[in-house]
Design a protein that fits this description.
heterotrimer, B: alpha+beta, Uridine Diphospho-n-acetylenolpyruvylglucosamine Reductase, domain 3, Enolase-like, domain 1, 2 domains, five-stranded antiparallel sheet, four-stranded antiparallel sheet, 30% helix, globular, C: alpha+beta, Aldehyde Oxidoreductase, domain 4, 3 domains, seven-stranded mixed sheet, six-stranded mixed sheet, 18 helices
């Protein structure tokens, strides 16, 4: 079946089994390795991408469900100025250690800030609740997002 | 060979499933896990699949006099964003999973998954929600407790689809939602509870308690609730033991990897007691 | 140059944040084959495999293909590459099915019939494989002379490393004679040496490359060697590139976990002071010993934690059971013992009705004291200062006054602990022989060659920083690439909190030599090998002497609130004070501190893995509960400077220290909140309910 969607701002028409996991389609057919598999059951968020700007677990999405929608992976997001502000903040606050959760965390932050440009700490903890991190204990990531939200006036 | 169909209208979807050989596929957050294959192999389905998540006809939230009508393909996230959804229902939804899951999970999908621990279901049972389901030629509306009949088991035929959920408007003075899970997000409930009480001139005119994860479906016992109707809230303390005793044989949790029956039972009873005491404390 | 502690941006941030970093699963290799493991479904059985007719392009590799001994080189030699006649745990690898079509592999695996002859599995403590013992002073006399003897028993459960990147390995034929492996690993040379031995190849024909590693925490210390041997044997036979990435559930049921422990402590009390401890620790090694003997040692050596006790009688056992083998996990035996010791200290103070803080302080180790094994605490110990700081930032004393009563349901707990840095005893000198290499090329670019691995702790940054600071030249580049055993000498494994202190120390010496003999625009190579400091004397058999070259120290304070209706624990805030010598990078150190504390605290109240009759019950992220962002609370961390003379810029170890004290701190806080004694972790709501509702 042909599924039509936008991938990192490019129009795509992709022929594939529509029940294929979007995660596998992104990694294997589009060679976008920034999206990771950590658990395959929607718990860890390493597979997180943006669908129409909102965080989504790509291991739970069949290709069919992105028909006519826009998909953004870390490869697309990293070209934006919002990414640069978040990246700077993550560097300054030490929000990335082993890095396996980082693309997902960056996209979770973007998803949050798009809806709520000045989140509270509680808002951020909730926004990150679907992204597991085993290295940082989360606090440095949260501080990074607060810092980015303060710096990124007008961006979100 | 499995056939995949993406209908663009409700009518098309109903026609598609008429022959009874299709699995309805909504957000996927349950089905993708239940039918999971190892990495890089598509999930295994032995029936044809009809993808309905994007049926815009089923994505709405409307207010109609004294009820709220929610299209079955409305996602939990969309419900959080709507001013029409009651605050208590939003409190329930906020405790479910995580933002990414709430973005794709649909209310209709929740109902058809019919988990005994389903948090939205606990709310729907408490408020006497009705479920509208249709086939190509028929439309039925039934109370939710008549639609879900067991764990993962609804009365829907293969040719039927949930299309709308109807929630009566309520005016409770007391409402409680308690989700008891192993952690604060991404958690399957060990016990959950919605409690509602409507008071007029210090008299309880309506009292409801619905439990999740303590029975084969969500548990609601209107005949037990009736014992508090007409009681003055000043006297409610005297009825606590009686209510606990009446609920005791019905709250039948199990031991599983998540928790123990003795814990679930004790916590369920604690929640009930606390809710009644809260009403009495006023 | 600035003080080295001043943070610099972590060098691998750009690639990790942007998704460019390549983890093992991200490598795209032409003509790739996949491997999937067929695993035992029995806890203990003899077996034989009835192999089906294999479709075109599908192969089976098993014990019959092994060119050499069926052993995964590890500390004990009892791990097999493939089970051959018997299996000893559910999940034990029997064979690999290899092919290019993943669906075909699945179909074949489901059609392989294994005939089992079940034997009687053992799940209790009866099968003791290792017994160790050491003494200090005269414990028998101390017990005879005691006013009082107090005895308590403590238990800790399994803990799963739960790295977000599952285990994975790729092996491919680099040439007709040479096999290369890329794996999510901590120890490239452990893997290389295991494969060399498994195949009988010449060392130069096995190469191990480290990609980005998505968390390890000890879980990728020894376990990957088994995957590597399996894949290498397959490549040896099939001459094709093969990739094996574990599914999460597969990883959880079949890879190593923290050893569950039972600790019994008897304390001899005289004049309200502990004069002797008789401690016994038993740890569950699972089906095979692996490195359990070293875990046992470390647990035993931690028997006095941050305290000095004059007289000790410490015994320990590793017992084997027919369940998944246990192995390395950050802390390595110390978290189990330190939980027991800290709870015991608090319980004794309570029983004696003395002020808890005074009681703890009275027993604190001091410089020049004898350690548990009769070595010496040679370096200054600043625990009193650290405790003061912890009390101040947490407002512990005031909160304790308010919380420590019935029905407050609030609690605050403090743990005091140490962690020996580096390998136990003479491990460095006798087993590891760590080497590092610096090469300066004609452009005056300096290359760092070490075999230790950045798995998130930031060593790509810290080790580079050390070299940069020592060389202290503005105009040069320092290049530090992830380990490739073709290029790097064996610097030893990335374990035991040794990387900064030992490997960093060697690099500092090498860098100094380079600086002092610097020849501009000329190629130079400096190799530096570990030399054990003269003062370290260690008897491995008797467990006597200086167990560690240095000790790092810590204080954790955790504040909780317990919900009296649901018995759930809510973390309110956490504070830590550490002495890790001199901090090499403040931000990286704080990151390690935050993460370790989260894991340690979760070990104490949240993470529960049950294994029932050899079957892992909690085997995915839905059922094995690690904290989400909503579960953690604010943390505050302070490092107090106390430079260590023999560490680079005064640095000691941190990696494990930050995990070791979390469990007792949260358990003590919960004890206060519910006014009941705790002897077991994790302290789940179910346990809290039992303690509150049923008087023990």
């Amino acid at each position: 079946m042909k599924i039509k969607f936008t991938l990192n701002q490019k129009s795509i028409e992709h022929e594939a089994n529509p029940s294929s996991r979007l995660l596998d389609v992104l990694r294997d057919e589009f060679h976008l390795k920034g999206t990771k598999e950590g658990c395959g059951e929607g718990e860890c968020g390493a597979c997180a991408i943006l669908v129409d700007g909102h965080i989504t677990h790509s291991c739970l999405v069949p290709l069919a469900n992105v028909n006519n929608r826009s998909v953004t992976t870390i490869e697309g997001f990293r070209e934006t100025s919002q990414y640069r502000i978040l990246e700077e903040a993550m560097v300054e606050e030490g929000g990335s250690q082993c890095g396996i959760c980082s693309p997902g965390m960056m996209l979770a932050a973007q998803s949050l800030l798009t809806k709520n440009s000045h989140p509270t700490e509680e808002d951020i903890r909730d926004a990150l609740s679907g992204n597991l991190c085993r290295c940082t204990g989360y606090n440095m990531i949260i501080k990074a997002i607060i810092r980015a939200s303060k710096r990124g006036e007008g961006l979100w | 060979m499995v056939n995949h169909v993406m209908p663009s209208s409700l009518k098309e979807a109903l026609s598609c499933i008429q022959d009874g050989t299709y699995t309805l596929f909504a957000g996927g957050s349950d089905l993708m896990v239940q039918h999971r294959s190892p990495a890089q192999i598509p999930p295994y389905f032995d029936k044809n699949i009809c993808y309905i998540a994007q049926l815009s006809e089923l994505k709405y939230i409307k207010r109609d006099d004294d009820q709220i009508r929610i299209g079955a393909m409305t996602t939990l996230e969309e419900m959080l964003d709507s001013p029409l959804v009651p605050k208590l229902f939003k409190d329930v939804i906020k405790d479910i999973a995580s933002p990414g899951i709430r973005y794709v999970a649909t209310l209709g999908g929740n109902i058809c998954n019919a988990s005994p621990a389903g948090d939205t279901l606990v709310y729907l049972y408490a408020v006497d929600a009705k479920v509208c389901f249709e086939s190509l030629n028929e439309k039925k509306i039934l109370p939710i407790q008549d639609v879900i009949i067991g764990p993962r088991h609804t009365i829907l035929k293969q040719s039927e689809m949930v299309t709308e959920i109807i929630i009566p408007q309520r005016h409770d003075q007391y409402q409680t939602w308690m989700k008891v899970g192993p952690r604060k997000a991404d958690a399957i409930s060990k016990v959950s509870c919605v409690g509602l009480a409507e008071i007029k001139d210090d008299i309880i005119v309506d009292f409801r308690i619905a439990w999740g994860a303590v029975y084969k479906t969500v548990l609601r016992k209107p005949e037990i609730e009736a014992h508090l109707i007409g009681i003055n809230i000043k006297d409610i303390g005297m009825h606590i033991d009686d209510m606990l005793n009446r609920y005791d044989p019905w709250i039948q949790p199990i031991d599983d990897q998540r928790s123990t029956k003795i814990y679930r039972k004790k916590v369920a009873m604690n929640i009930l007691q606390e809710f009644i005491e809260t009403i009495g404390r006023r | 140059m600035k003080d080295i502690s001043t943070s610099i941006p972590k060098v691998d941030n750009p690639e990790k944040l942007s998704g460019r970093a390549l983890y093992v699963s991200d490598y795209e290799i032409p003509n790739l084959y996949y491997a999937k493991t067929l695993r035992s479904t029995q806890a203990k059985a003899f077996f034989h495999v009835i192999k089906p007719q294999l479709p075109q392009g599908i192969f089976i590799i098993d014990a019959s293909h092994l060119p050499q001994k069926n052993v995964v080189k590890m500390i004990a030699d009892d791990w097999k590459i493939f089970a051959d006649v018997e299996v000893n745990y559910i999940g034990e690898p029997i064979l690999l099915v290899i092919g290019q079509d993943k669906q075909k592999i699945e179909d074949v695996i489901h059609n392989i019939h294994v005939k089992y002859e079940p034997q009687t599995p053992i799940f209790d403590q009866s099968n003791i494989k290792t017994h160790k013992t050491f003494q200090k002073g005269n414990p028998q006399q101390a017990f005879q002379e005691a006013d009082l003897m107090i005895e308590e028993t403590f238990e800790t459960g399994y803990q799963e490393q739960a790295y977000i990147e599952p285990q994975g390995m790729i092996a491919y034929p680099e040439t007709a004679d040479k096999i290369t492996l890329i794996g999510s690993i901590q120890c490239p040379y452990y893997v290389k040496n295991a494969v060399v031995e498994a195949l009988g190849y010449d060392e130069k024909n096995i190469r191990v490359i480290q990609p980005a590693v998505g968390g390890a925490f000890g879980g990728k210390e020894e376990f990957p060697s088994m995957m590597a041997c399996q894949l290498a044997v397959a490549v040896h036979h099939l001459h094709v590139p093969i990739k094996m990435i574990y599914e999460r559930e597969e990883d959880m049921i079949s890879t190593t976990k923290r050893h569950p422990s039972h600790v019994t402590i008897q304390a001899a009390i005289k004049n309200k002071k502990i004069t002797a401890l008789k401690t016994h620790v038993a740890i569950n090694g699972g089906a095979y010993l692996g490195l359990s003997n070293v875990v046992l040692s470390r647990a035993m050596l931690a028997a006095t934690s941050a305290y000095t006790i004059e007289n000790l009688d410490v015994t320990g056992d590793v017992y084997l059971t027919n369940s998944v083998p246990t192995g390395a996990f950050r802390g390595f035996g110390a978290p189990q013992m330190i939980f027991a010791v800290d709870m015991m200290m608090a319980h004794i103070a309570k029983k004696l009705k003395v002020n808890s803080l005074s009681f703890h302080r009275a027993h604190l180790a001091k410089q020049h004291d004898l350690t548990s094994t009769g070595g010496i605490f040679r370096d200054p110990i600043i625990m009193p200062e650290m405790i003061e700081k912890a009390l101040e930032i947490s407002d512990y004393i005031n909160k304790r006054k308010i919380y420590d009563q019935p029905t407050s349901y609030k609690g605050i707990g403090m743990s005091l602990f140490l962690h020996g840095c580096g390998f136990t005893g003479s491990g460095e000198a006798e087993h590891i022989h760590a080497k590092v290499k610096l090469v300066k090329d004609e452009h005056d670019d300096v290359y760092i060659y070490v075999a230790t691995v950045d798995m998130g702790q930031g060593q790509l940054t810290t080790l580079k920083k050390i070299v940069e600071h020592v060389i202290d030249r503005e105009d040069i580049r320092i290049i530090y690439l992830p380990a490739d055993t073709d290029d790097v000498p064996d610097s030893g494994p990335t374990v035991a909190s040794r990387t900064t202190m030992i490997v960093g120390g060697l690099l500092a010496r090498a860098a100094l030599k380079l600086k002092e003999t610097w020849k501009t625009h000329e190629r130079m190579e400096i190799m530096e090998s570990y030399v054990q400091p003269e003062y370290i004397r260690w008897n491995e058999e008797k467990l006597q002497g200086d167990a560690y070259p240095a000790y790092s120290w810590g204080v954790n304070v955790v504040e909780v609130e317990v919900n009296p209706i649901t018995y759930q624990v809510d973390l309110k805030q956490l504070w830590s004070v550490y002495d890790i010598g001199h901090v090499i990078d403040e931000r990286l150190a704080r990151g390690q501190a935050d993460g370790g504390l989260t894991q340690g605290v979760a070990f104490g109240y949240l993470e529960k893995m049950e294994i029932d009759q050899g079957r892992v019950i909690h085997k995915n992220f839905t059922d094995y509960i690690i904290p989400t962002a909503k579960d953690m609370a604010k943390t505050q961390t302070f490092f107090i400077d106390n430079p260590y003379a023999f560490g680079p810029y005064g640095a000691k170890g941190l990696g494990e220290l930050s995990l070791v004290g979390g469990a007792p701190a949260v358990a003590l806080a919960i004890e206060m909140a519910i006014q009941k004694s705790i002897h077991r972790i994790p302290v789940t709501p179910e346990m809290i309910m039992e303690l509150i509702e049923h008087e023990d």
